[in-house]
Amino acid sequence: MTRDPFRRGGRRPSASLLLAALVLSASVPNLGAQAPQDAPSLVRKAAEARLSEDWFGAVELYLAALQVNPAYTDAIQGLAESYYALEEYGQALTRVSEARRLKGDDPALLSMEAFIRIGLGETTKASELFRAVLARLPNDLEARFGLALLDLRSGRPTDARSRLMESLRISPRNARALLSLALISADAGRDRDAQTYIESALRYHSQDARTQYVAARLAARGGRIQEAKERARSALEIRPSYGEARRLLASLLLESGDSETAARLMEEAVARDRRDALAWYTLGIARSRLGQTDPGIYAFEAALALRPDDEIALRALEDLVIDATMAEDPRRSRVAAERFVRGRQFESNREYERALAEYRRGLKVDPYSKPGRERYAELLRLRGRPSSYLAELEFLKSLDKADPAILDAAENYASALTGTVGRSWGLDQLLLGKRPYKIVFFSLPGLGPAYHPGVGTVLARALRDEAARSSLFDVPFAAGTAGSFAEAFRSARDSGADWFGLIRTEETERDVRLSLDVYVARTGSPAASFSSLRSGNERVSRAVSHLAGLLESSPPLRGSLLRRNGDTVLVDLGRNDGLAEGDRLLVVRKGGISPSPQGIGITYRDTDVTGEIEVTRTDEEVSEGVLRRAGYLDRSNLGDSVVRKPEPPAPKPGSAPETAGKTPAPESSPKPGIQAGEPVWPGLFDEVRRLR
Question: What DSSP state is assigned to residue 14?
Answer without folding.
Answer: P
